[in-house]
């Protein structure tokens, strides 16, 4: 095997390199290399590892030769290091802080294609739209002997003859060559649609900053060239994005680059369009919807300095922007910044650390800042910038609460209506006036509860500790956690009684709305109708073009879209999510409600929000309806302090899961005891206890929560726990610093 004879070449001019391998091992390795460029820290290398070859990363010269055999670096890749010294120190910090192997952290920072030893295969360009050019049967006949072509034709026929190429690729893998073959046979028609340009989303030159924007810009510009974190707090429409754009312009003028993080770039095409219309090709947009080659191309453009602005979601925090001058995190409170598996980093927190390491400013923007950031601002660690009003001079929309509780004697027989008379009345009036409305319900499917009226048995997932949701469009019962789908049962499997279907999700809401407002054009937006960014974009464009009157949706509709025609927002059930057994449930609900409410009245006509709830006195609902983030923060911070939760203490969660419940529990108990011993009186240890979702995808789950004043205390305990882990026996253990959720 190659590399086995490394020792032979070792004394004739080889060097020793410390190497991080992208594997779940908490250590680095020493390799010999003939090529001295292997010593450059941050270089991609190809090394033998176990019985295979892998891409790995140089960390520079090894300090000493380890005993035993030393294997040899097979190849040194690229023209230079792929990680700058600055990025390397960020990754070292992150690996250390999140107790994660460095090599694997470095893996997470690169486009996946750069982890393959071979050259990056240019993915064939994909058309936008694919249509059958002949009747389905003729098409089937034409592709009889080509199974992959036949599968594609079936999929097209099933979809009524036309589909987005992106969706096909998502379902069937790389389809470009097949599509070309089919087009050559004349069986399908391929067409390209131009990307939505700035004309749809309003580009144009930069406006004159308002006085508050000017003040924020002055503060940010004054801090260029040194570390300073800012919390930019302003309601939706108060001009935060404009502040980012103009701050970036100042940074570019200094010859430096910018990094902009947004929660879900694939969901916010408007924002990318706005950046492009201002900065053109200087912007590299990074997101998981891109093909491999496109991701590599954007990465290269940044690395070479051809693009100086990186715009992307979570993992873009590692984007190789040259000579970085500013870091911006939009919607800094958004939970999607926390990676929930494997390398469990928080992109917002790493963004602040990156700014610190690079000695540059960092701007965290939000209408509803996280309690962590508010607390940091209160302690003076972050400078606070406030945009107190909407730029159009209009006030925030008026919020009306509809209390869904009713005295027992007034409860009508049968299931309650989803839409209160009040909300229906406002909806009808808005549609009548030719205005638009958004209806928010954070639950997809038709009904979340399928129940036997005789034995009380609930249809639940065999793999997960959760109920199944009835989806009417597919007549199926589905688990929203593991994606299990079964045909809808008509009757209870044990008593043969007809099942009850209770409660409402977006699908039912849409149906009910079409029934109640037959003249309104109603559409729905959730993961079921828009599994891809492209379909999402199509629905949003139709809504923007006013081809839809009422848009029903999950939190997908809450994010950053700007629809001037919307004058009414209805929150169908504000309580969804409030009852979750997680210490951030109230904070999330408040943020989501505020965000949804912000969709109302962004144009000529002032907006109105109607919130339906069974818990009108809950802090999150009261303060969201009063547009009062300070009031909410005060109440919630008090509660957090009383319970010793973040931001007053740091938290480390230890998650255990495995198929054998007894074994998971046994190991959880052992780890819990060890944690208590290690923590002594420096950290509080809660649990082990079954996780709130006690079973997921067939695995039983336990967790241990550690709380301490200082992160370093938790990290020290965490590192000792890792070192002491017993051999797996089918139980996975994951350490989660600053967990975003403890479900
Ligand atoms: P936010 O990011 O806080 O939601 P935006 O930056 O998107 O706010 O601004 C809201 C709207 O106001 C956008 O349409 C934007 O183009 C416009 N806008 C922002 N700043 C100004 C300004 N100084 N003068 C005029 N219009 C502005
Ligand atoms: Zn499940």
* Inertia-based shape: globular
If helices are DSSP runs of H or I spanning 4 or more residues, what is the number of helices? 22
User: What structural class do helix, strand and pairing data support?
Assistant: alpha/beta
* Main sheet record: 7 strands, parallel
Q: Helicity range of the residues?
A: 25-40%
Strand content: 15-25%
Spatial ordering of strands, largest sheet: 11-12-10-13-14-9-15
**CA-to-CA gap between the ends?**
47 Å
What would you say this structure looks like, in words?
It is a single chain. By secondary structure, the protein is an alpha/beta fold. Strands 11-12-10-13-14-9-15 form a seven-stranded parallel β-sheet, sandwiched between helices. A hairpin with a 2-residue loop joins strand 3 and strand 4. The chain is globular and about 90 Å long. The protein starts with 5 loop residues before the first helix and ends in a 6-residue tail after the last strand. The site of zinc ion has 7 residues, from loops.
Spell out the key features of this protein:
30 strands, binds zinc ion, six-stranded parallel β-sheet, 743 residues, binds adenosine-5'-diphosphate, 22% strand, alpha/beta
Please specify the SSE layout and strand pairing.
Blueprint: H1 6-10, E1 15-20, E2 29-33, E3 44-49, E4 52-61, E5 75-76, H2 85-97, H3 102-108, E6 129-132, H4 136-142, H5 147-158, E7 162-164, H6 165-172, H7 176-184, E8 188-191, H8 198-201, H9 211-222, E9 228-234, H10 240-253, E10 257-261, H11 269-279, E11 283-286, H12 292-303, E12 309-312, E13 324-329, H13 347-358, E14 361-366, H14 371-378, E15 382-387, E16 398-403, H15 421-432, E17 436-440, E18 449-451, E19 469-471, E20 476-478, E21 485-487, E22 500-502, H16 506-516, E23 522-525, H17 533-544, E24 550-553, E25 566-571, H18 585-597, E26 608-613, H19 619-625, H20 629-643, E27 650-658, H21 661-679, E28 684-696, E29 699-708, H22 711-724, E30 731-737
Parallel strand pairs: 9-14, 9-15, 10-12, 10-13, 11-12, 13-14, 16-26, 17-24, 17-25, 23-24, 25-26
Antiparallel strand pairs: 1-2, 1-4, 3-4, 3-5, 6-7, 6-8, 18-22, 19-20, 20-21, 27-29, 27-30, 28-29
Helix pairs in contact: 2-13, 9-10, 18-19, 19-20, 21-22
């Amino acid at each position: 095997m190659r590399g086995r004879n490394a020792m032979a070449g070792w004394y004739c001019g080889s060097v020793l390199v410390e190497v991080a391998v992208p594997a779940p091992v908490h250590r680095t390795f020493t390799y010999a290399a003939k090529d001295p460029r292997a010593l450059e820290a941050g270089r991609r290398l190809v090394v033998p590892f176990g019985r295979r070859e892998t891409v790995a990363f140089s960390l520079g010269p090894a300090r000493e030769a380890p005993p035993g055999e030393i294997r040899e670096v097979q190849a040194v890749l690229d023209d230079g290091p792929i990680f700058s010294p600055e990025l390397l120190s960020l990754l070292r910090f992150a690996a250390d802080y999140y107790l994660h192997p460095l090599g694997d952290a470095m893996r997470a920072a690169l486009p996946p294609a750069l982890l393959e030893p071979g050259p990056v295969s240019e993915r064939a360009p994909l058309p936008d739209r694919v249509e059958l050019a002949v009747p389905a049967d003729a098409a089937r006949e034409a592709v009889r002997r080509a199974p992959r072509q036949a599968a594609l034709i079936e999929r097209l026929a099933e979809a009524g003859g036309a589909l987005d190429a992106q969706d096909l690729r998502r379902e069937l893998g790389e389809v470009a060559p097949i599509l070309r073959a089919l087009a050559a046979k004349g069986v399908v028609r391929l067409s390209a649609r131009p990307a939505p340009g700035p004309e749809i989303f309003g580009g144009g030159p930069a406006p004159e900053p308002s006085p508050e924007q000017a003040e924020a810009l002055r503060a940010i510009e004054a801090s260029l060239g040194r570390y300073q974190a800012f919390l930019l707090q302003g309601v939706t429409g108060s001009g935060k994005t404009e502040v980012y754009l103009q701050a970036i312009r100042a940074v570019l003028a200094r010859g430096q680059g910018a990094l902009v993080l947004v929660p879900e770039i694939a969901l916010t095409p408007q924002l990318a369009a706005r950046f492009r219309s201002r900065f053109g090709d200087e912007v590299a947009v990074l997101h998981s919807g891109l093909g491999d080659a496109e991701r590599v191309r954007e990465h290269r453009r940044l690395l070479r300095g051809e693009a100086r602005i990186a715009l992307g979601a979570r993992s873009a925090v590692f984007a190789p922007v040259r000579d970085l001058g500013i870091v911006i995190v939009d919607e800094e409170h958004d939970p999607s910044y926390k990676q929930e598996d494997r390398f469990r980093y928080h992109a917002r927190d790493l963004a602040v650390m990156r700014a610190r390491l690079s000695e540059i400013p960092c701007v965290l923007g939000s209408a509803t800042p996280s309690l962590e950031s508010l607390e940091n601002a209160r302690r003076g660690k972050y400078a606070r910038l406030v945009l107190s009003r909407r730029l159009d001079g209009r006030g925030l929309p008026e919020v009306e609460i509809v209390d869904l509780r009713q005295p027992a004697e007034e409860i009508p027989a049968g299931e309650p209506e989803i839409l209160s008379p009040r909300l229906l009345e406002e909806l009808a009036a808005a549609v009548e006036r030719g205005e638009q409305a958004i209806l928010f319900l954070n639950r997809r499917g038709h009904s979340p509860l399928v129940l036997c009226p005789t034995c009380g048995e609930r249809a639940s997932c065999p793999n997960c500790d959760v109920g199944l949701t009835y989806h009417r469009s597919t007549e199926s019962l589905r688990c929203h956690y593991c994606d299990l789908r079964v045909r809808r049962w008509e009757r209870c499997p044990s008593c043969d009684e007809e099942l009850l279907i209770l409660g409402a999700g977006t699908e039912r809401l849409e149906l009910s709305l079409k029934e109640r407002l037959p003249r309104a054009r109603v559409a729905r937006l959730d993961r079921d109708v828009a599994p891809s960014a492209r379909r999402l974009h199509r629905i949003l464009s139709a809504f923007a073009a006013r081809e839809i009157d009422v848009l029903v949706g999950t939190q997908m509709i809450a994010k950053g879209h700007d629809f001037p025609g919307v004058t009414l927002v209805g929150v169908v059930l504000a309580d969804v999510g409030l009852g979750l057994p997680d210490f951030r449930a109230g904070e999330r609900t408040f943020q989501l409600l505020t965000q949804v409410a912000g969709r109302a009245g962004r144009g000529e006509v002032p907006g109105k929000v109607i919130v339906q709830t069974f818990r009108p006195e809950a802090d999150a609902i009261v303060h969201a309806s009063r547009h009062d983030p300070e009031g909410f923060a005060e109440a919630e911070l008090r509660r957090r302090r009383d319970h010793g939760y973040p931001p007053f203490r740091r938290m480390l969660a230890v998650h255990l899961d495995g198929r054998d419940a007894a074994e998971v529990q046994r190991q959880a108990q052992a780890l819990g005891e060890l944690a208590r011993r290690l923590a002594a009186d420096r950290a509080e240890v809660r649990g082990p206890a079954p996780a709130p979702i006690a079973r997921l995808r067939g695995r039983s789950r336990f967790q241990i929560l550690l709380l301490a004043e200082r992160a370093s205390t938790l990290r020290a305990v965490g590192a000792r726990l890792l070192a002491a882990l017993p051999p797996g026996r089918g139980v996975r253990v994951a350490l989660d610093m600053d967990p975003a959720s403890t479900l």
